[in-house]
Amino acid sequence: MTIRLWWIRPEDFKASPAALALLSPEERQQQQRFIPPAKRHEYLVTRVLVRSVLGEMLGTAPENLRFVLNDWGRPALAPESTIAPLHFNISHTEGLIVCLVSDEHQVGVDTEHLDRASTLLKLAPDVFAPDELRELRALTEYEQPQRAVLLWTLKESYIKARGMGLSMPLDSFAFRFDQSNIILELANPLEDDQTCWKFETHQLGSHIISATLSLHGQKKQVESRINIAEFTSRG
Ligand SMILES: CC(C)(COP(=O)(O)OP(=O)(O)OC[C@H]1O[C@@H](n2cnc3c(N)ncnc32)[C@H](O)[C@@H]1OP(=O)(O)O)[C@@H](O)C(=O)NCCC(=O)NCCS
Q1: Is 12 exposed, middle or buried (0-12, 13-18, 19+ CB in 10 A)?
Q2: Atom of ligand 1 at shortest distance to CA of 46?
Q3: Any residues with Cβ below 6 Å from ligand 1, and which?
Q4: Segment among 1-5, 11-15, 39-43, 85-89 with least mean pLDDT
Q5: Atom of ligand 1 nearest to the CA of 109
Q6: CB 124 within 8 A of CB 76
Q7: Which stretches make up the 4'-phosphopantetheinyl transferase domain (predicted)?
Q8: Closest-CA residue to 184 (of 199, 169, 171, 166)
Q9: Per-residue model confidence as pLDDT tens digits over 62-87
Q10: pTM of the model
Q11: Which domains are assigned to the chain?
């Protein structure tokens, strides 16, 4: 069983013709549409990261992988690119790109810089559930920024694991912190089994990363934690 979180700082990756050659013609076109150079570079590094790690796991040349999108835009490997299930999810923000991969669990991942805290604290009543908001406001001024980013990335990683994007209202579920456990509470428990998810959070420098694993149809105790690895440039 593999659950690995790959990360790379885009500034550590040197763009090269070899790296660009890993992208499909559509991806190369898409890359050219980004005007800011940083966004263009981020797009390239993301594609190289995803194609390289999945290609290595599948024993397939990265440039030969094909992807499809679900109705809400989540990319997955096209059926012809893989025989066994291989789940992945991507998140990119300024200064960090992450890709969570599992051969067993559907996954979701989100990362944000702690700099986002002030925006999130302003948006808190709109983006957090009432219980989350109450717990957030009970914290000290010093603790609130970290909690806001933690909550936001957890919510996004859960939404992304479900694959439905923002069609899921952000206040329809809440996260509670019970010592070292992260507990999901759904406004309508009939929509999903809230005990069928495992959550993990990590901090890498000033970035928070939250990961969600689906345990649906599997035993609820996943012993192994997520293995974190830096993706080093092969471009
Ligand atoms: C996918 C979504 C949930 C997260 O996007 P995001 O946090 O902006 O961006 P991330 O970098 O974390 O994730 C983007 C990646 O998620 C993946 N993704 C796209 N749609 C997805 C979906 N429905 N489910 C899961 N993953 C999805 C893609 O791989 C995408 O990267 P790519 O386009 O390079 O392939 C998106 O629906 C969204 O718009 N979120 C809201 C952002 C927002 O409103 N922010 C303002 C409040 S502070």
Answers
A1: exposed
A2: 34
A3: 46, 72-75, 89-92, 110, 119-120, 123, 156, 159-160, 163-166
A4: 1-5
A5: 12
A6: no
A7: 106-210
A8: 199
A9: 999 999 999 999 999 999 998 888 99
A10: 0.94
A11: 3-104 (3.90.470.20), 109-217 (3.90.470.20)
